[in-house]
Amino acid sequence: MAQGRRVERVAALIRREISELLITGIKDERVSQGMVSVTHVDVAGDLQHCKIFVSVFGSDDDRSQAMAGLQSAAAYVKGELGRRLKMRRTPEVVFQLDRGLERGTTVLSLLNRLGEERLSKDSDPPATDDPEDQAGATP
Asked: Model's pTM, two decimal places?
């Protein structure tokens, strides 16, 4: 149990430092084009590997540019983590695109559209095939 808490604590520290590096440390223009945020950090039990899941707000081109910038900055990020966290061994850093927020936004927009369609159907009078109803005749 103690090792699990240690890994979680290291993951939280890495997430905080990476978030700060995204704002002030990484100077690559490709990273600053899209709005990049850290969604999750997954650290291996032996603290040798670290997956940093990021969300990039923007177009597909912005996403691919930001991910390329992050991949090229991985060695710099590893060095900064080692210096800032004073770890004996700094884990290898891998950035991975997290599309969870994007999927959530898509699902929400679909639900909103369905709700609007349902409301518009409820407010429209029902259509009938009877020609007398359409002519305005009343029974």
From this structure: 0.68
